[in-house]
Here is the input.
Amino acid sequence: MKNIVGIGLLILMLVSTWYFLINGVEGGLIFYSSLILTLFLMMIGFNIFLENRDPIQTITWLVIFCAFPFIGFIFYFLFGRNFRKERIFRKKYFLDKQTFVKISGEAGYNERIKEMGEHPQQLITLANRLGNSPVSFTTETRVLRNGEETFSNIIEELKKARHHIHLEYYIVRDDRIGGLLKDILIQKVKEGVKVRFLYDAVGSWKLARSYIDELKNAGVEMAAFGPLHLPLLNNKFNFRNHRKIIVIDGSVGFIGGLNIGDEYLGQDQKFGSWRDTHLIIKGEAVRTLQIIFLQDWYYSTNNSFLSDEYLMTGFPNHHGHGGVQLIGGGPDSEWTIIKSIFFKMITSAEKSVWIASPYFVPDDNILQALKVAALSGLDVRLLVPKNPDKRIVFHASRTYFPELLASGVRIFQYNEGFMHSKIIIVDDQLASIGTTNIDMRSFHLNFEVNAFLYQTESTQQLVNDYMEDIKVSQEVEIDAFSKRNFGLKLLESTCRLLSPLL
Here is the structure.
């Protein structure tokens, strides 16, 4: 019903615009256009009010409509419509849940979980209940700390593929690294390897059609997640697939912050050096990554490959590497899965909470958890870029600094290029690495995937890397930060106004 109303409003606006353009100013173009736009905004505002959204979001939309009517109208149709996201993706959610339940509990590691202590046990239980994904103690992981290291490992493993390659990315570029990847995939198809490639229709909107067609013609199965034919009329425009996944032969996987493009290798003049973190996974936990991909593929193509051929058992055991749990979250879930796990990590920390996030626009729950942790005497640190790639988000994030600094949170701005890592480390023992930013979009709108590491060797590597990043970062001092000029403060506050929508 709401979709029909939205389409009707848009059609009415277009017809009205066409009419007044034909009749010109003599027909009262300015007056009647303003009147119609005002009526539209009143109807939209009333509709938002009836949806019982978060009060802050509701007030934000109303303020935007009053201050910037026309821009607010377009912005609402692109990003603001709430069509009960859980209803849109309900079928996907239940299919995903049923699939994960089938493998839940197979590992039988209850005793091993208890041996880890109460803190990891609570997190593992929460993640399992929310994400329906078991923890694995027979999985090997290794941290990859930049684009060169990540892509060299990806290329090496792709060349070893014998049965299948599954790729899922938010951004894919037709550049040097994108071309190299394309050539490898085409070669693997010639060798008889099944290759499936899922890319987000919005994130990869600049991807050349010739790139896609060349892969298709070679035998690679290509699919776009959430294709948009009429963006203003598409109620899924705002829900994007932000995941970065590679699964090779069901036993090797990759996840992390790096998309496919030369800028992630530090070869783009606009961004310069690019600091990012990825993870290679080998063993049992890859099966969870495989399921996430296959369910996303089924949602996008209606073709299912959930069979023993792709969910093989008998993985090689990698003992002594701690626990690994892969969790997918998104608007199809009845819970804000990854955000809830982050909240639990912060509130249950005993010594320290270290966070790295390129985009920091927390909601009230995460913000309060960080402040309380710092006020309780914990070592709470936040690492963010000094130089932005998304200016609205960058300026909005800085408005949170004063209250965080006042509570005792130490904030560091990374100086050597752009920092894109998405990391949380708690007590030097527990860690999260993946695609999820500390912002509203990752928590509520995007499909994301993270690896949660419990007392693994990779956790210690993340700790070491974080300390190295701090050495090349500038700490934000509260006195100096408070002296920034009025114009900058005004800009930041304006961007903060949009923070519930980012």
